[in-house]
Amino acid sequence: MKRRLFFLLVVLIPLLLTVRSSMAKEFRMGLMPAKESLPFYAEERYGIFKKHGIELVVVPFKSALERDSAYEAGKIDGSISDIVAVALLARGGRNIKILRTIAKPQKEYPVFTVLKAGRGTPSKEIAISFNTVIEYATDRILEKQKMSGVLKKTEIKSVPLRMQLLTEGKLGYATLAEPLATFAGMKGAERLYTDEGVKGSHVVFVVRGDLGDRFLKSLAAAFDEMCTQANKEKTLLKEVLWLKLSLPAELKNAYSLPDLRIKELPARQDVNDVLSWMQQRGLIKESIPYEKLVFR
C-alpha cells in the first residue's frame, strides 16, 4: 500500500506542478530601451516571476508615445515609466499605479544629465522632450544651478538624434538619460550637471490598477526577489542587457550598472513635487491624490 502511494505521488506531483505552471496569470510588460528593463529581461534566466504564478510577456517599445498608446488601448498591463507619464495617464482617466521605484538619482548614478557640446560655439539652446520627465528634471536641475531662463528649451524627441547633434556640436546643450549621457561624454560632450537631489526624477514600475490587490502583491514580491538576485549578478546580466538593447560595445566597460531599488516607492513629497511642476506647466488642472497614483 505504501509503495503504491509513493508511486502515485511520484507520478502526480510533476503533473500538479505542470498544471500550476499552465495556470500562471499572463502579465504583458511594456519595455523601453532602457537599463531599467534589466529585471524583466532577467526572467529568461531565473524564472522568478513564473515561480510566483506570473507568466511575464515582454512587449518592446521604441518610444514613450508608443508605450502610453498601448496602455490606452489595453494592450499592456505594466511598463517602465515615470511619475509625469503616470500622472498624465491618470488625468485621462486610466487606472494606473506605481508599484515600485526601479531607479532614482544617486551621487555617482544619475538618471538624467545636462551636457554641453564639446566642440563648436555652443548655442544657448538646450534640447529636451517637452511635457515629459526629461523637461521636469531639466527645469529642476537648472533651477538648482540658478540657470533658469539662461538656456532656451528646444524639442528634439528622438534621443539618438539629440545625442548625435550634441556630439557633432550642432546643439549647445542637451539632457540625456544614462547610460547614453556617459556615451555622449565619451564622444566629447562635457557633463555639466546631474539630477542628484531632484525629488521626482524616478524610473518606476507601473501597472494597471484593476488587476487586483492579491495579484499586485504577488507581482511586487516577484519584482523584489528578482532585483535582489539581479544585484548579485550584475556583471553577468550586463551582457544580457547589452544584447537586448543593442548598446554600443565600447560603452560596456565604461559604464557601471547601479543597484536596482528593492521594496521602494516614491515618497509623497517626490510625487507632489512633480505634480506641482505639472500644474505650473498647465499639464494638470489640480493635484492628484498620492493614493491614486501609488499602490501600497
Structural key phrases:
5-stranded mixed β-sheet; 2 domains; alpha/beta; 10 strands; 14 helices; 296 residues; D-Maltodextrin-Binding Protein, domain 2
Largest sheet report? 5 strands, mixed
Question: Which strand order spans the largest sheet, edge to edge or round the barrel?
Answer: 2-1-3-10-4
- What is the level-2 CATH architecture name of the largest domain? 3-Layer(aba) Sandwich
Number of helical stretches of at least 4 residues: 14
Instruction: Name the poorly predicted regions.
Output: 5-22
Give the percentage of residues in beta strands: 15-25%
Oligomer: single chain
**Overall pLDDT metric:** 91
Span of the ends, CA to CA:
50 Å
Classify the fold: give the CATH topology of the largest domain.
Answer: D-Maltodextrin-Binding Protein, domain 2
Estimate percent helicity.
40-55%
Total domains, how many? 2
Work out the radius of gyration. Answer: 21 Å
- CATH C-level class of the largest domain is Alpha Beta
Principal-axis shape? globular
- Category by helix and strand content: alpha/beta
Q: Provide the succession of SSEs.
A: HEHHHEHEHEEEHEHEHEEHHHHH
CATH superfamily of the largest domain: Periplasmic binding protein-like II
Number of strands: 10
